[in-house]
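thread: overnight batch results

M.L. [08:02]
morning all. the overnight job finished for the chain we discussed friday. pasting input first so we're all looking at the same thing
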Amino acid sequence: MYAVVVTFQIELARMAEFMPAMRHNAATSLKGELECHHFDVCTDPDRPGEVVLYELYTDRTAFESHLASAHFKAFDAVAAPMITSKVVHTYSEVTP
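M.L. [08:03]
and the structure it wrote out:
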């Protein structure tokens, strides 16, 4: 498995606009990408403006396919102006 953890900082005034787009991207990924196994969108009221994603894919190639998908590109075009910072961490599963 291939895990992706993304931390966004969103302009506070745009959170109400960002979250539906983010939730739609997550739902579309889970429904339409067979190798997307998990896609959580998380927030914490103590850190307004911060959104954390936890995504789980079969492998790196599946994640790269996600990034190339039409729905991700549409989300990215809409969301990019709302994002003040973005940090992406990726992890490969350790096998025995």
